[in-house]
């Protein structure tokens, strides 16, 4: 409870700060004060895992919400947070992400997702890279290349028992692989590059994510077919990594992957206001050790159908991160811009900026099918009101042929059948009078 209270307080602090003009304070003073405040959150095990780029968000919307996305996942970024959400996506999406991380390090991502009825599919490729420059003993530049971590995955998800009232239980998995590319280095005596020297320190990761999502209505005071509360659970980066390729000692087990247990929720109190929260527990699968958990929270306010403002906070270790961004849509392209302020942020050069562009490619006819269902259901209601119960039942059975879990049609058939049964009993009783 203390941890949640602290999170709410800090998130409120993020919203209130600008109104008091505290942005005029010297950044170094603010940074020093925050460092003292969160010093107790330092985890001595931080940095002991491999493939750390798996913890860097694609960017854009997810960062703006403080990476509190496990219980939301309403766009293709679910591939990094909860693999169950592919079967809940409204539209097919092709997305590009750019994340200007720390100093000269960057990450680029391309991702795709689509859905057929209750089956969702997705895939992505990400590349994290940072310039690598080597100097000899005299300070002369002898080699230049890039250190890279490239990962990719294929996702499969299904939403079981999805219907009109009960929205279903979505489960899914993403099978992933990663490669750490270490550049070759030089010989100190000859300054010549040693062939395959970087290969020994490169690494291969094999892993998977599994997740589940549940959505339903709770304290909902506005009209929408979409559930206003989502709950998510995700186990991320379950697997092993290997290194030592090409070395005389052979391939060996690398440091543990950054495995994570994540839970989250998203809640729309009113239609324009969305709140998200995440709680994450890092786990070392090789030692069984559980590291310090961390939290995040986010808020989205939708001003118009095409423009929203987002803000978030994440407390991870002793590095609090405040983020804010905008999302806007035009001509079926959804753009996100985000800036994150934490202890690694700098203004020269500018970093902790991320962008995303999502091409919305339609819903594969689901909205047209839904319109047909609505039309048939309304026709059934009209026939029912006219006392044509058999004809109404016939219309509603057409609805169930399209969507067998359309609950209003089931209820209509039951009601009309009772009316017919009651009418027949009345007619039968009149025969004896």
Structural key phrases:
433 residues; alpha+beta; Porin; Serine Threonine Protein Phosphatase 5, Tetratricopeptide repeat; 2 domains; 14-stranded antiparallel barrel
Walk me through what this model shows:
Helix content is 21%, strand content 40%. By secondary structure, the chain is α+β, with helices and mostly antiparallel strands. It has two domains: 363 residues, Porin (Beta Barrel), CATH 2.40.160.40; 63 residues, Alpha Horseshoe (Serine Threonine Protein Phosphatase 5, Tetratricopeptide repeat), CATH 1.25.40. The chain has a 14-stranded antiparallel barrel with strand order 1-2-3-4-5-6-7-9-10-11-12-13-14-15.
Structural class: alpha+beta
The CATH class designation of the largest domain is Mainly Beta
CATH architecture of the largest domain: Beta Barrel
By CATH, the topology of the largest domain is Porin
Kindly report the spatial arrangement of strands forming the biggest sheet: 1-2-3-4-5-6-7-9-10-11-12-13-14-15
Task: Please tell me the overall pLDDT.
Answer: 87
Question: Radius of gyration over alpha carbons?
Answer: 27 Å
Low-confidence stretches: 6-25
SSE topology sketch:
Layout: H1 2-16, H2 27-37, H3 61-64, H4 78-81, E1 93-100, E2 106-116, E3 119-135, E4 141-160, E5 169-181, E6 203-216, E7 229-243, E8 252-253, E9 259-270, E10 273-283, E11 294-304, E12 307-316, E13 319-330, E14 333-341, E15 353-360, H5 366-385, H6 389-402, H7 407-430
Antiparallel strand pairs: 1-2, 1-15, 2-3, 3-4, 4-5, 5-6, 6-7, 7-8, 7-9, 9-10, 10-11, 11-12, 12-13, 13-14, 14-15
């Amino acid at each position: 409870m203390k941890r949640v209270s602290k999170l709410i307080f800090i998130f409120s602090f993020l919203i209130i700060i600008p109104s008091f003009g505290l942005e005029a304070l010297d950044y170094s003073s603010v940074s020093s004060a925050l460092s003292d405040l969160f010093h107790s959150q330092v985890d001595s095990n931080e940095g002991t895992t491999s493939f750390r780029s798996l913890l860097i968000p694609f960017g854009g919307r997810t960062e703006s919400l403080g990476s509190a996305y496990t219980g939301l996942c309403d766009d293709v970024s679910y591939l990094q947070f909860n693999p169950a959400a592919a079967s809940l996506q409204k539209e097919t999406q092709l997305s590009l992400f750019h994340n200007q991380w720390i100093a000269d390090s960057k990450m680029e991502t391309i991702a795709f997702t689509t859905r057929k009825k209750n089956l969702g599919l997705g895939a992505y490729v990400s590349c994290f890279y940072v310039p690598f420059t080597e100097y000899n003993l005299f300070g002369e530049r002898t080699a230049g290349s890039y250190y890279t971590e490239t990962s990719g995955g294929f996702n499969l998800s299904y939403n079981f028992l999805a219907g009109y009232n009960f929205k279903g239980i979505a489960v899914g998995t993403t099978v992933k692989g990663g490669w750490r590319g270490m550049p070759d280095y030089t010989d100190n005596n000859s300054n010549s590059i040693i062939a395959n020297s970087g290969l020994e320190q490169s690494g291969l990761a094999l892993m998977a994510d599994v997740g589940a999502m549940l959505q339903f209505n709770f304290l909902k005071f506005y009209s929408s077919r979409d559930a206003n509360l989502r709950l998510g659970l995700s186990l991320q980066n379950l697997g092993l990594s290997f290194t030592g390729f090409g070395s005389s000692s052979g391939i060996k087990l690398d440091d543990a992957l950054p495995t994570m247990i994540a839970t989250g929720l998203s809640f729309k109190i009113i239609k324009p206001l969305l709140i998200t929260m995440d709680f994450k527990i890092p786990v070392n699968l090789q030692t069984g050790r559980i590291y310090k958990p961390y939290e995040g929270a986010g808020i989205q306010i939708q001003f118009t159908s095409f423009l929203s403002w987002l803000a978030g906070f994440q407390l991870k270790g002793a590095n609090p991160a405040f983020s804010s961004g905008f999302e806007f849509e035009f001509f079926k392209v959804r753009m996100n811009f985000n800036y994150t302020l934490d202890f690694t942020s700098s203004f020269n050069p500018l970093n902790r900026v991320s962008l995303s562009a999502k091409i919305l490619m339609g819903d594969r006819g689901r909205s047209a099918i839904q319109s047909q269902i609505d039309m048939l259901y309304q026709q059934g209601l009209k026939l029912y009101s006219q006392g044509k119960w058999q004809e109404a039942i016939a219309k509603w059975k057409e609805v169930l042929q399209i969507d067998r879990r359309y609950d209003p049609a089931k209820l209509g058939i039951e009601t009309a059948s009772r009316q017919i049964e009651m009418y027949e009993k009345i007619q039968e009783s009149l025969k004896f009078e």
